[in-house]
Amino acid sequence: MKIAITGKGGVGKTTLASTLAWIFSKDHNVFAIDVDPDMNLATSLGVHENIIPISSMRKLIKERTGVDSGTSFGEVFKMNPKISDLPDKLSYDYKGDGSLKLMVMGTVEKGGEGCVCPATVLLKALLRNIIVKKEEIVILDMEAGIEHLGRRTAESVDLMVIVVEPGLKSIETAERIKKLAEDIGVKKVVAILNKYSSNYEKDFVENKLSSLNINLIGSIPMDKHVIISDMEGTPLIKHENSVVLESMKNIAKNLKKII
């Protein structure tokens, strides 16, 4: 099961991704992968150790592609670097038993490098290897918006989950994501409503999504525990009385039924 979680910025993708990763890891081995340049997935899981993004590992990038990550345009490098051994080597073992591994991809920060550079090639090859060849459940915390779809980053996932919140802007983003997801061959696209505070908001979003032929598979209400966990730097899973946590457990069950 390979799931990409996406949506407009600020809708709660990272909280959902981290919590689902933990829920699934109770019965399965899971790779939780931070593909968002903001790189907040580790913090959402309550990890405060300094995890070096793979995009910053210049020695590794040079070793695998043949040139330094800061190479000038036009320099020849390997477009298909060896990466089969890297997922296990570069992941953080969250529980210490291999059931939940965290990987932080990072982003190419040097201006002018563009989309075709050693670092980007290595990241894409590594991500594709994990999605296509790994048997573990893979949960991708994608960057906000739709740019990653245009770069075909998530083309091999089983399911695209769009997180929406009450409001037309979020729904408009969901519509664009669905269109681009279909363009790159993602056959299953569903939505999850987050941060709703009334049945009116829930019905509004469900009706709008239905008109776009996007199935709403779960809804998550507003809950103070999400704010508290963020302020404390603790994972939501520590807040056992949270209605959000219960909602996400139900969503996890629904996801298993879909895939």
Describe the structure in your own words.
This protein is an alpha/beta fold. The protein contains ten helices and eight strands. The chain has helices spanning 13-24, 41-44, 58-65, 86-89, 118-133, 147-150, 168-183, 199-211, 224-232, 243-258, and strands at residues 2-7, 30-34, 92-93, 100-104, 137-141, 159-164, 189-196, 215-221. An eight-stranded mixed beta sheet has the order 3-4-2-5-1-6-7-8, sandwiched between helices. Helix 8 (199-211) links the parallel strand 7 (189-196) and strand 8 (215-221). The longest helix is centred in the middle third of the chain and has 16 residues, at 118-133. The protein is globular, with a radius of gyration of 18 Å. The relative contact order is 0.19.
Question: Layout of helices and strands, plus pairs?
Answer:
Elements: E1 2-7, H1 13-24, E2 30-34, H2 41-44, H3 58-65, H4 86-89, E3 92-93, E4 100-104, H5 118-133, E5 137-141, H6 147-150, E6 159-164, H7 168-183, E7 189-196, H8 199-211, E8 215-221, H9 224-232, H10 243-258
Parallel strand pairs: 1-5, 1-6, 2-4, 2-5, 6-7, 7-8
Antiparallel strand pairs: 3-4
Helix pairs in contact: 1-10, 3-5
